Amino acid sequence: MEDVVLETDRLLLRPWIPDDAPALYPLAASPVVGPACGWAPHANVAETRMVIRNVLMGSESYAIVSKDTYDIIGAVSLKFHRGAFTRDDSEPEVGFWLGEPYWGHRFAEEAVAAVIERAFTVLDCVAVWACYFDDNERAHKVLERLHFIYEQTEPWVTTTTGKHARHEMCLTRDRWPMLSGERGGRPFAMARY
Predict the structure, then answer these.
(1) What are the residue boundaries of the structural domains of the chain, listed by start?
(2) Cβ–Cβ < 8 Å for 34, 28
(3) PANTHER family from the entry (predicted)?
(4) Strand (E) or helix (H) holding 179
(5) Which residues pair with 166 in a beta bridge?
(6) Hey, which CATH number is domain 4-188, 3.40.50.620, 3.40.630.30, 1.10.3720.10, 3.40.50.460?
(7) Which candidate, 68, 119, 67, 69, places its Cα nearest to that of 95?
(8) Residues with Cβ within 8 Å of residue 157, at least 6 apart in sequence
(9) Short-list 95, 56, 90, CA closest to 78
(10) In the chain, what is the straight-line distance between the N-terminal and C-terminal CA atoms, in Å?
């Protein structure tokens, strides 16, 4: 697996390492972050380390790091053929979350845009899917700003935090603003290997 680092104006998206656990834990322990994404707040650094090893260290999964402070501020990933609503490996699901202190600065939009750009221009994907739960309007707004279109709602999806309505959205390559010229040909991210 290649170690890809994506760089945006304000962020570095880099692979996870187990030693990120102490920095990630305070963000993942928040009672408002995980439940909005369908997972319970982390109980301790050991749990965070286990999640990094078993979930976050996968292919196309990135720590979102502030270029100003080099602090980890969240996570973003592309999941291939694991989502219930993705059709095949050419249509991954993007997942993302930010620590509560970093809400309201459009960091999520910047990070998600970078991995979408990679999906369409490097990984040759034809669509990217995403979902959000009823109580996560912030994620919904991020997806709308990135031109995702509502597809359907699954009314009773069970997660570790209970049953939720899951709203599924899709962005096709032909609608991606970078490829359609909306950003004037300027990429969201530059990859460093």
Answers:
(1) 4-188
(2) yes
(3) GNAT FAMILY, PUTATIVE (AFU_ORTHOLOGUE AFUA_3G00765)-RELATED-RELATED
(4) helix 177-180
(5) 133, 154
(6) 3.40.630.30
(7) 119
(8) 38, 133, 163, 164, 165, 166
(9) 95
(10) 11
Residue whose entry in the numeric block shows the structure tokens 């219930």: 84
Phi-psi group of 124: left, alpha or beta (phi > 0 → left; psi -120 to 50 → alpha; rest → beta)? left
Q: b/e for 160-189, b at 16 or more Cβ within 10 A?
A: ebeebebbbbbbebeebbbeeeeeeeeebb
Three-state SS for 189?
coil
Per-residue pLDDT of the chain (193 residues; tens, 9 = 90+): 468 999 999 999 999 999 999 999 999 999 999 888 888 999 999 999 999 999 999 899 999 999 999 999 999 999 987 555 666 778 999 999 999 999 999 999 999 999 999 999 999 999 999 999 888 899 999 999 999 999 988 888 777 777 878 889 999 998 887 654 555 445 565 655 4
pLDDT confidence of residue 175: 86
Distance CA 2, CA 191 (A): 12
| Residues sharing a CB contact under 8 Å with residue 38, sequence separation 6 or more, in sequence order | 133, 157, 159, 160, 161, 164
On whether the CB atoms of residues 135 and 112 are closer than 8 A, the answer is no
Structural tokens at position 7? 């760089």
- Can you tell me the distance from the alpha carbon of 95 to that of 131, in angstroms, rounded to the nearest whole number? 8
Beta bridge partners of 154: 166
